[in-house]
Design goal:
Structural class: alpha/beta
Strand content: 15-25%
Number of strands: 10
CATH class of the largest domain: Alpha Beta
Number of domains: 3
Number of helices: 13
Order of helices and strands: EEEHEHEHEEEHHHHHHHEHHEH
Radius of gyration: 19 Å
Largest sheet: 5 strands, mixed
CATH architecture of the largest domain: 2-Layer Sandwich
CATH topology of the largest domain: Nucleotidyltransferase, domain 5
CATH superfamily of the largest domain: ATPase, nucleotide binding domain
Helix content: 40-55%
Length: 289
Amino acid sequence: MIAIIDSGSTKADWHILQTNGVSEHASTTGFNPFFQDSDYIFESLTQQLNQASWMSNLEQVYYYGAGCSDDYRCEIVGEALRKLFPQAECFVYHDILASARATCGNKPGIACILGTGSNSCLYDGKDLIDNVTNLGYLLGDEGSGGHIGKKLIQGYFYRELPEDLKFEFESTFPMNKREFLNNIYENDKPNVYLASFAKFISNHKTHFYIQNMVNQAFGEFLDRHVQKYKRHNTLPIHFVGSVAYHFKGILSIALRERNLEMGIVIQKPIDNLAKFHLLGDQFVPAEQV
């Protein structure tokens, strides 16, 4: 029995593959080893999984996680998993590899994440061969939920929102400046808080201001990341994440403006990722509707 986990900073999806072919699903909060340590991850998972029946039967655990960008960060998560599943082999990978495997399968392509945060990679069908550095929510995360949330808040406080959108914003978020800033600078997950504004943005995505703002954010991501890869103008560019999924129309425009080829767009990679592990070379990625 194996467990495959895809974890963003906000939420983690679990797919349990049993030896008899039966699958189970679970979800927990997401983790990011830049913000949480091993003890926090272990205690949180212990509480949330609550001794699920399959936990003691796992033989292998494959964890793909946000922030697992180097050996040190991977070990933070790995320590928690080994403590939680002492009988299992535990493998920890960056979540960008999950995106590549779920969208490219065994073929070359460029895989991107546009969710709470953002990332990208060039994939040769087996391995990641290039990755433009992701500087995180303070300095990067272009095109992500956190990035467009930051742009919305900036637009509000810099008095740039059109009056109708300003009214909607104040009706939805009746907070003063101090409350906004406290929620950002005194929050243990500031990136998640900023990304929470993506729902408001999605609810108003037909508004010209929002369309332009999101298009600019996607443009920054494509210009600063995707177009730095060799063969970016000939390979399909695939996307994973809620922001890519819910703003697919605007994303397709930003790609078309740069003569880039859109590949498949999926909200969550977990089902495709499970098929990748189950089918191996026979796996063919499919877009999820």
